[in-house]
Structure to design on (202 residues):
C-alpha cells in the first residue's frame, strides 16, 4: 500500500520530509526499511541559525549531496531498487531536455530547493504540459483568510484531491525564474536538486 505524503512537523524539516516523501511516492509501505527513515532524519537538518541553534536553519546542500551518496550505497548494499542523482547550480533548470525534465518523464521524483519566503524543499512528482505537479510539505489551507497573497496567481494552483501525489500545480516558467518569490528557484549558485529513481520499474 502506498502511504499518503507527509507534511513537515516543524519550520525546519522540509528537507528530510521531502526525501521521505520521495520514498513514500516510489515504494509501497511494506517495502520501506525503517533504517532508511532513521538515517535520512539523522543526516539532514545539519545547520545552525544566527543564534547558534542547531537544526534551525534547515538542511544544507552538503547534507543533500551526502544523502544522495548514502542512499545509493544503501540501495547497493540492501539490493533496494533506488538510484539517486544530485544536481546543482546551472544544471538545475526545468527546460526541454534538461536532466530534471528527462527524469520526470521517466517517472522519477525530485527534491527541489526553491523559495517560500525563505529557502525551502519540495517534491516534484509529475509534469503536465507547461506545469509541474509537486508536493509542498509546508501545510497551507487554500481558504485560510490569512493565506499569503503570493498564492493569489494562476501560476500557483492548489490540488486537494491527490494526497499521495501532489498538492500544488506550478507553472514551469515561474519555477525557472532567477528571483526568489514563492515557488521560484532563484539564482543559479543556490540551486540544487536530488533526483530519485526506482530502478526495478524503469
Amino acid at each position: 500500500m502506498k502511504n499518503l505524503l507527509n507534511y513537515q512537523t516543524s519550520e525546519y524539516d522540509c528537507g528530510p520530509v521531502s526525501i521521505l516523501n520521495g520514498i513514500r511516492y516510489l515504494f509501497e509501505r511494506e517495502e520501506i526499511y525503517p533504517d532508511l527513515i532513521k538515517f535520512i532524519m539523522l543526516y539532514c537538518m545539519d545547520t545552525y541559525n544566527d543564534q547558534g541553534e542547531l537544526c534551525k536553519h534547515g538542511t544544507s546542500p552538503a547534507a543533500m549531496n551526502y544523502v544522495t551518496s548514502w542512499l545509493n550505497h544503501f540501495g547497493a548494499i540492501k539490493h533496494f531498487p533506488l538510484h539517486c542523482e544530485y544536481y546543482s547550480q546551472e544544471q538545475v533548470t526545468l527546460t526541454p531536455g534538461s536532466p530534471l525534465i528527462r527524469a520526470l518523464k521517466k517517472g522519477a521524483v525530485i527534491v527541489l530547493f526553491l523559495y517560500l519566503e525563505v529557502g525551502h524543499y519540495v517534491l516534484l512528482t509529475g509534469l503536465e504540459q507547461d506545469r509541474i505537479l509537486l508536493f509542498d510539505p509546508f501545510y497551507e489551507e487554500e481558504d485560510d483568510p490569512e493565506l499569503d497573497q503570493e498564492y493569489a496567481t494562476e501560476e500557483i494552483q492548489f490540488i486537494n484531491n491527490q494526497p499521495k501525489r501532489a498538492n500544488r500545480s506550478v507553472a514551469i516558467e515561474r519555477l525557472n525564474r532567477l528571483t526568489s518569490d514563492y515557488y521560484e528557484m532563484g539564482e543559479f549558485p543556490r540551486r540544487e536538486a536530488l533526483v530519485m529513481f526506482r530502478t526495478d520499474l524503469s
Observations:
- Residues 47 and 60 are 6 Å apart (CA to CA).
